[in-house]
Structures are given as structure tokens and as C-alpha cells.
Amino acid sequence: MTTTTVNEPKKRGWRELLFGRPEQPYVNPYVGGALLGVVLFLAFFLTGNGLGASGGLNRYVVYLEDLVAPEHIDRLSYLLKMAGGEKNPLDDWIVFLTFGTLIGGFVSGWMHGRLKVETNKGPNISVRTRWLAAFVGGTIMGYGARFARGCTSGQALSGGAVLSAGSWAFMFAVFGGGYAVAYFVRRLWN
Amino acid sequence: MPPFPLPLDAMIGHYGAYAVYLAIGFAFGYVLEISGFAISTRLAAQFYLKDMTVLKVMFTAIIVAMVLIFFSTAIGLLDFNLVWVNTTYLWPGIVGGLIMGVGFIVGGFCPGTSLVSVATLKIDGMFFALGTLFGIFIFGETVHLIEEFWNSSYYGRLTLMDWLNLPTGVVVLGVVLMALAMFWAGEKLEQHFGGIEKPRRTWGRYAGIGALVAGALLVVLLGQPTTEAKWARLAPEKEALLEARAVQIHPGELLASLADDQLQVVMLDVRDEADYNLFHLRRAEHLPLDEVDAAIPDLRLNSTVNTVYVLMSNDESAATEAWKRMAAESVPNVYILEGGINEWLVTFGHDDPTVQPTPTPPVDDELHYVFASALGDRYAAADPDPHHYEIEYTPKIKLQIKRGASGGGCG
User: Fold this and answer.
1) DSSP secondary structure letters along B350-373
2) Is there a domain that residue B409 lies in?
3) Does residue B73 sit in the same domain as residue B147?
4) Same domain for B118 and B78?
5) What residues in A contact B96, CB-CB < 8 Å?
6) Chain B contact for A88, CB < 8 A?
């Protein structure tokens, strides 16, 4: 029988530390949902605010704009509210929540062996097409999220749980928009 | 006052509060990841009816949080007035939602899930997140072109309970039952289109359904506290403030505050229309006592860090009644004009010959003056020049730090 040498002490480099953990399956969606519900409840219960993501990303964008072209900010009232004069657009709770979301996602991915440099796509498109679609879709999503004053987390999830009438109308619109177009872009995913 | 939400800034400071948000964000990201929301193909499958994970996670989260929130408000643990409820801009919300739906199916994520995807090193997630930042940038640069539509169909803090005119508990129960029906239909669909096996009927499923329905029924039975019940709970503390005359401000203080750039004084005149038309202070808004309750959500929403509400009636009775309702519903920084309009006229109306005291003995909370004509705010006493008066008074306005919600996750 041929075996490779086993005497060599196993080197645990940083790659091994990051990516070497055994991959584990995802939790049952109802269990995940219930946990998400508890997190959402705690956010409201402790702080009065719900969850969100696009608001945080928005402030990162405005921060960069303020670095590059501060006088430009002062001309647009929408941006002025966040970064006018001495105001720092990053001095807001949602920025910290968004940063926490990144860390939480990373830690969970690492613990469950799901950190993986990869591109998830439908079987009939190239990786580059997927990247392009992701960028274009992201652009549409970013624009729409600001248009609707919130994304799936800030409007649908948070507004839905406190029974905001506008959030429920919004939520059905998101699903409506997705289902209406899904057939035409089926090549991307199927 | 219900103890929650916590006054985080006052308790642990500005950055202490941010640490709490960081922790909540961490939990959010963690839960999204274990639900599989970092994988675009899994999210997109929702729209081909092959895998209903998105629907299941989202609606389970909504109904679990909803039942917990409205149970907490029912038992007086959480102040719903301090919970941020997304304001309704109906049509911009619907149009934005439709655009986002398209972005979702083309790009495979929503902003929150793309963050988790980036965190777990998915390259498509990174392209999506970059696109999101770019889309946000475009919106910020072009919003002035569509500003009119973007600010249209505004309904303020409108809940499904207000819209349907149903008790909160009934709406909560209805939403729970609707979600359960959607789960049932969703599972049928994914069995048909996605070839997913019929789930086993474990005790966990029945326990979950039972707990949610029981929780919703409990919310129906308990009901939500009324303004009167909230006042009853607050009365000992707040009556003491009224007794000590800590919230009744002198006419001189009101005049000085109106001229103070640091304060945004909103005067609310709660008298009937006839009295208001005869005489009122310039820029005082007319809000009859019986319309106060309906106006409270907007008053709370429009309150900024330096907003001060000053209530006034002819004497103090009606203004005090309005003050109690506003205090019970957590409107911050509300004061009463001491002695009302009558005292104001004693102070500022004595050199106007067209304003004369009534010949009959004064009755409580009625005008003690007769006016030649209903000139409203065109009397000199309606807008006295602060520089002409040197009045001594004990200042009472102290800005209270606004507690609770500060504008939702979308600001």
C-alpha cells in the first residue's frame, strides 16, 4: 500500500485557519426566520429602530462624495441633510449596524466553513455574464432602494413587523416586480 | 412610562449606543448567513417557485417580531410611540419596490443579503454591492429631477390598523394566519416546481404554529393601551409637574423663545374656531382640542431635537387637557402658556384701545376680553416686539433628549 508521508507535522497556515473548517448545512428556513424575528424584535425593543442596510450603504457613498467634492454636497438638499457643513455622514447608528452585519456574516461563514471565493450563477451563463448581471442588478436595486426609502431589510422586514401600511404595499411591489420580470431573465438562473 | 425602548444615548453615551447597534448588526448578519442568504442562486430560486426559502425566512421573521412587539406594547413594556414605523409615501414606495424587484431578479441579491455575500467572499456579491453603491450614487445625484413625485402621496405614520380601522390584535392575528397560508402554498409550489420533498410533520412545526397563533390571540385579548390608560399610568409623575407649575411658561418666556434661533417653537392654539378667529398669536396653529388625538402622530414625527410645543387656551384648562394627552403619547418638549390668552393680553394688550375687558365677571377658560372685530392675528398684541418688553420670569423650558427611534434603517 502506498501512503503519503504522515510524519510531516501538519502546517496550519492562515488559509487553513480561514477556509479549513468543515462545511455545514444551512439551518431550516423557519428556524432561521424565527431567529431573525427575535433579532428584529430586540432591535426595536432596545433601540426603537429596526434593521436596515441600504441606509448604511447610502451614508458610505455620501461620505466618499463628501471627501471628493464637499462643495457639491452643499448644492443638493438631499445630500446636505447627511453631510452638510460639519456633519459627518458616518455618525449614524445605521452605519454601525451595517458594519456589524458584515462582521456577523463573516464570522458565521467562517464558523460553518462557508467562506469560499466563488461565483454563484445559473448553469447556462458565463462567470463574466454573471458578474455583469450582478453589477447591473445591483445598480437597479440601489436606485430602487433609495427611491422606496428603504430596502428589503429597512422597509419590508422592519416596516412589515410594525405593520406600516406603506411597507406592506412596498413588499408586495418587490415580489410583483421580481415575478413580472423573472420569466424574461430565466436564462440567467436556469 | 414603559421602560423600553431604552434611552441608550443617556444611559451609555453616544458611542455606547453605537456598540449596541454594532452588536445587533452582527446578529443580523449572522442569522442571514445561516439562512443561506449569501448565495444568489438560492435567493433567485424564489422567483422560479423552486425554493421558497426567502418567503419562509422573511415572513417567519416578520410574524415572530410582530407578535413579540405587540405583546410587549400590550403589557406596557414597550412604548409603541417610540418605535420607528416607516412613514408611508405610497406611490414612490410602490414604484421603488417594483424597480427593486427587477434589480433582485437580475442581480440575485438585495442590499442586506449582498453584504453577507461580500463577507463570505462571493464575487458575484461583490459586483452586486458595487452596483448598489453606484445606484445609490445615481439616485442621490438625480433625486432633484423627480423630487415632486418622490415626496407625493405622503400619509405619515400610517399603520395597517389605521388604514383598515381594526384593532391591533385583529390585524396581528390576520397577518399570522395569512403568513401560515403562504407557507402552506409555498411548500406546495416548491414540491411541484422544485421537486423538493414533502416536509415531515414534526412536533416542532406544530409547536411553532401553535405558539404564533396563541401569541396573536393573546394580543387580541389583551388589547393595546388607550391614551387614557397610558395617562393613568403616568399620572402620579406628570400631575406633580403640573402642580409644581414646571411646564407652564410665562408669556415673557414664550415671547423670548419665539425670538430665539436655537429653538423651534410651535404654538398650538386649542380653543374653538370663534375664539381663534377673534384673536390669536401670530404663527399660532389652530388645533381644536377634539383634533389633538388625531394630530399626535404627526406632532411626534415632526418634532426635532430643538422643537418646543406650546399649548394655549383662554385660561389653562383646555391646554392642560391637551398637554396630558400629548404627554401620555410621548410627545417630547410640550409646555403650556401660563394663564393662556387672557394672561397674554394682560401682559401685551393693555395699550390697545380696541381690546377691552368683558363687562361680565370672567368664567374659567373663556375670553376675558371683547374684540371690536375678528382680526385674528392682526392685533398688535398678536406679535409684540420682544425688544419693547423687559419681563422677568423663571425660565422653564428644558429641552429633553429625544428618546427612541430616530428615522429608521433607511435614513
Assistant:
1) TT-TTEEE-SSPP-TTS--EEESS
2) no
3) yes
4) yes
5) 144-149, 170, 173
6) no
Please give the ipTM for the structure prediction. 0.92
Regarding whether B146 and B92 lie in a shared domain, the answer is: yes
Are residue B243 and residue B333 in the same domain, yes or no?
yes
**Same domain flag for B234 and B210:** no
Q: Which of A62, A109, A174 sits opposite B104 (nearest CB)?
A: A174
Asked if residue B351 and residue B304 are part of one domain, the reply reads yes
Residues of chain A with Cβ-Cβ distance to B144 below 8 Å are 76-78
Q: Cβ of A104 and B29 within 8 Å?
A: yes
B 70-129 → A contacts, CB under 8 A: 72, 78, 80, 82-90, 92-125, 127-129
C-alpha to C-alpha distance for B230 and B224, rounded to whole angstroms: 10
Instruction: Report the alpha-carbon distance of residue B190 to residue B181 in Å, rounded.
Output: 14
Q: Which structural domain range is residue B97 located in?
A: 8-225
| Residue B316 shares a structural domain with residue B271 | yes
Per residue in A2-14, pLDDT tens? 445 455 555 668 8
Measured between beta carbons, the chain A residues lying within 8 angstroms of B136 are 54, 57-58, 61, 142-143, 145-146
Sign of CA dihedral A33, A34, A37, A42: negative
* Cell numbers placing B290: 377634539
Residue B400 lies in a domain: no
Residues B339 and B364 in one domain: yes
Instruction: Identify the weakest region by mean pLDDT among A85-99, B83-97, B276-290.
Output: A85-99
- Total of domains in chain B: 2
* Average pLDDT value for residue range B357-376: 82
Cα–Cα distance, B152 to B139 (Å, whole number):
17
Strands B248-249 and B285-286, bridge-based pairing: unpaired
What chain B residue is nearest to A151 in terms of C-alpha separation? B111
Contact B334, B309 (CB under 8 A): yes
Residue B2: inside a domain? no
* Minimum-distance CB partner of A163 among B30, B120, B171: B171
Pick A154's closest partner by Cβ from B44, B106, B409: B409
Minimal CA separation from A20 to chain B, in Å: 14
B38 at A interface, C-beta within 8 A: yes
The answer to whether the CB of B279 falls within 8 A of the CB of B376 is yes
Using one digit for the tens of pLDDT, what is the confidence trace for B10-57? 888 889 999 999 999 999 999 999 999 999 999 999 999 999 999 999
Confidence class of residue A44 from pLDDT cuts 50, 70 and 90? Answer: very high
Could you tell me the pTM of the whole model?
0.88
Is residue B383 a part of any domain in this protein? yes
**Residue A62 Cα, gap to closest chain B Cα (Å):** 8
